[in-house]
Fold this sequence. Notes:
Elements: H1 3-16, H2 20-32, H3 39-54, H4 61-68
Amino acid sequence: MDIQNRKLDLIKSLISIEDEESIDFLEAYLKEKPYRLSKSELLNRADLASENIVSGKYQDQDDLEKESESW
């Protein structure tokens, strides 16, 4: 399917949405202009996170909750 047909399918789907919550979600999503990570970027982030855990460079849930109490 080419890009034009995909766009038309998306438009048709948008037209069929009846609830305002879904429209709000889509508007917010499009305004944020999210970026996509490539597979290699995602894998690099996962490797870095694993290294941080092994070396103790992380905060657990309890520490975060205690820290957030002072905000």
